Amino acid sequence: MQRQIFTEEHDAFRETVRTFLSKEVLPHYEQWEKDGIVSREAWRAAGRQGLLGLAVPEEYGGGGNTDFRYSAVLAEEFTRAGTPGLALGLHNDIIGPYLTGLGTSEQKRRWLPGFCSGETITAIAMTEPGAGSDLQGIRTTAEDMGDHWLLNGSKTFISNGILADLVVVVAKTTPEGGAKGLSLVVVERGADGFERGRNLDKIGQKSQDTAELFFNDVRVPKKNLLGERDGAFIHLMTNLAQERMGIAVAGIAAAEHLLEITTRYVKEREAFGRPLSKLQHIRFEIAEMATECAVTRTFLDRCIVDHSDGTLDAVHASMAKWWATELQKRVADRCLQLHGGYGYMSEYPVARAFTDGRIQTIYGGTTEIMKEIIGRSLLA
Fold this sequence. Notes:
The chain has helices at 8-25, 29-35, 40-48, 68-81, 88-102, 105-117, 232-268, 280-308, 314-338, 349-356, 367-379, and strands at 122-125, 141-144, 148-159, 166-172, 182-188, 194-199, 210-221, 225-226, 270-271, 274-275. By secondary structure, it is of the alpha+beta class. The strands form three sheets. Strands 1-4-5-8 form a four-stranded mixed beta sheet, covered by helices on one side. It has a four-stranded antiparallel beta sheet with strand order 2-3-7-6, with no helix packed on it. It has a two-stranded antiparallel sheet with strand order 9-10.
């Protein structure tokens, strides 16, 4: 079906993204996968190309465009290229809104120009070893010491954890407040007591640096409080819909791309003297995946438009996230199976897509959490 949500400007931006990928990412990606981290130069190149800070006001060096469709284009093209290691979506769509929406004028002047140029790489540190998605279980504390916060605790599974120059940390500022006693404090590279653990060895997305972070009596300036004291729960809930939409967009794009490459493969690959595509079972597999992708794409495009218009609610974002990522997981598994033994070989795109995409149903809120959000809204 012809997609109708993009204009000529979006199409031109898509070509810009594809050119950037072909020149600045794909030639280096295999080395980044071996290194377990992307180069900082790639971030600066993205800044020069105008791919960072799409929604940041122009006065701070950003694009000044809050149309989420541009972020959707970026997510789709990076997914189709099989290059999730350069986590521009995390930077732009997850952390960016905290800085632009909650930052003071002084904070914006201090942080956003580097954010847009690629000189300042960002991360958000929420997950802890014993807490997972449970905000009430967060143990990291930021104690009010008068002229500064004293930060103590640890975080894990932090994307961009090694490269990050600016880390938005979720910490407990009112111990008896539970999830309502949390605040966002910003820790900058080089702060005394801020240490990075190992670059975690994941089964996929090898070049996306994911780390443990440790905070031992870190003195965080009072001016680095982001948003309201004890307001992190509301701040986080406000921005989660966009995070989940970004993941959902990547999910359906991955499923569609896997279907494309597998369709080509079964036409070319022969078994028992004829192409695999001549076997009824293969045709049924392709037919089922194509139908599921088409139906999901229609819903996702509606959600993209609604989010661009500011009308998408948390429930429908949760629906999009769990459905698109579970579809991605199913399609990756079925497409790998249709590739036979070759699907298990790392040099085949389907193999990398299988491992890279497995995290999609976990981060940004697990499928189970998404269903809980939807169920509560319907049965409250």
